[in-house]
UniProtKB/TrEMBL annotation:
Substrate binds at residues 178, 182, 216, 235, 331. GO terms for biological process: glucose metabolic process; pentose-phosphate shunt, oxidative branch. This is Glucose-6-phosphate 1-dehydrogenase. The gene is zwf. PROSITE patterns: G6P_DEHYDROGENASE. Pathway: Carbohydrate degradation; pentose phosphate pathway; D-ribulose 5-phosphate from D-glucose 6-phosphate (oxidative stage): step 1/3. GO terms for molecular function: glucose-6-phosphate dehydrogenase activity; NADP binding. InterPro entries: G6P_DH, G6P_DH_AS, G6P_DH_C, G6P_DH_NAD-bd, NAD(P)-bd_dom_sf.
Amino acid sequence: MVSRTIPVDLFDLVVFGGTGDLARRKILPALFKRFCSGQMADGARLIGASRRDWSDADYREFVRKSLSEFAGELALDRSLVETFCRCVHYVSVDANGPRGWDELSGLMVADRVRAFYFSVDPGLFSGLSMRLQDHELMNEQSRVVVEKPFGHDLETAQALNAELAQHFDESQIYRIDHYLGKETVQNLMAVRFGNMLFEPLWNAQYIDHIQITVAETVGVDGRGEYYESAGAMRDMVQNHLMQLLCLIAMEPPTFFDPDAVRDEKLKVIRALSNVEPHHIVRGQYTAADGATSYREDVDNPRSRTESFIALKCHLNNWRWAGTPFYLRTGKRMSERDSEITVVFKETPHAIFGQEAGRHNNELTIQLQPDEGITLGVTIKDPGPGGMRLVDVPLDMSFAEALGPSADSPDAYERLIMDVIRGDQTLFMRNDEVEAAWAWTDPIIRGWQARGDAPKPYDSYSAGPDDATMMIRRDGREWRGVIN
Ligand SMILES: NC(=O)C1=CN([C@@H]2O[C@H](COP(=O)(O)OP(=O)(O)OC[C@H]3O[C@@H](n4cnc5c(N)ncnc54)[C@H](OP(=O)(O)O)[C@@H]3O)[C@@H](O)[C@H]2O)C=CC1
Ligand SMILES: O=C1O[C@H](COP(=O)(O)O)[C@@H](O)[C@H](O)[C@H]1O
């Protein structure tokens, strides 16, 4: 089942790195699903580009395999797959040399949107940008899509921004953070700014603290080399968790338009305080339950890279002064669970007495799996036992509440269509990315200077005990299934 939508303008989507892992697992299936939904107008094309000497037919075969593996039931419909494949082309292009550029140029059609997706190593961005310009491939409706990682630190991110700015206008650059394309993440904005109910209470006066957890059961899989140089802080916190924090904490933008939203997010990042060393716990998974250790996975018996991080931070602004934000993310944890929990303060006075129990309302925004939003409300425990209080959930499971139309498109489906529509709201601006690095860098430099080693934790566990102790010292507990 795919959500049907009106077609976007006619486009050519050129995927540099079209034969790579990301294209195979995410980009091609996402485009196919949008095709099935009727969102790709007749004549729109996907053009795969990479060095290998393939024909259209070879690439179509690659696309068929990708769809059968990653596009679910839709890919069982062979006539759909074959009709889609007729929109698919391939050019052999070298980002670092002259090969293929004239051919690519010759393939382009005037008067349609051109999106150039850089799904390659960031070391190739410069060559691609230069050649796109030299071959006059950019028209007034052209965009470039840039994958993560966007830099390794502030300095490299600034250099990358400067490099891109030499060739493209900021309005043409779409920096992907796929978390922003997740349906529930967008719903977070709808819930906050589409209801009168929450916003008056959305501040330090009523909110005790906020938790953001993004836990994965997978390890680093085949990405050991990249991950060794990144770790959880650069891989997840600097971008995905930061974006979630922004959306939960930002002021209401005046309009739902790209710059209004990104201006507000930027203010949040700039308001982040430095993180004290004792408010950070780094961990590294060890072998357990038949699973390999992190060090085995990355083939480095001395690795000090973190596969888990938990930290407490504050926002230095009027709305949030005094409200801690607890962030944690890790690989090889006991469950796949991404959620944000907003824990409200207790009522100021316990009219039913302490023996009735006191409770905090909690708003839980579940990103994955099973997207939904739950509000914990305190009621009387039923029965004749007197006034005892109990929490019950007011549940907004999207699938139950909205039926089949709640079927969420994958983040890449949404984001690729936004690129074609020319809507940058869910993409990161240059200053946002740099501000995120400016906050991240001193934290990393701090633990490097102290020589801190990550704490070991068992694969498929809740992470290091120190993370539990960190929040417990504040008289609080991690929420959700991992605690
Ligand atoms: N895979 C993932 O899950 C994720 C990946 N990313 C990012 O996406 C980008 C791509 O990752 P991924 O797909 O995994 O990488 P892969 O190594 O699987 O693919 C790299 C692609 O680049 C092509 N390529 C390499 N050199 C050149 C060149 N000189 N000119 C033209 N094409 C070239 C390769 O094809 P050929 O060898 O034929 O040229 C291949 O298609 C990276 O920046 C990565 O960090 C981001 C999030 C998740
Ligand atoms: O960007 C990344 O995200 C994935 C997690 O994405 P999700 O959509 O499956 O939650 C993570 O595994 C990867 O390490 C990171 O680079």
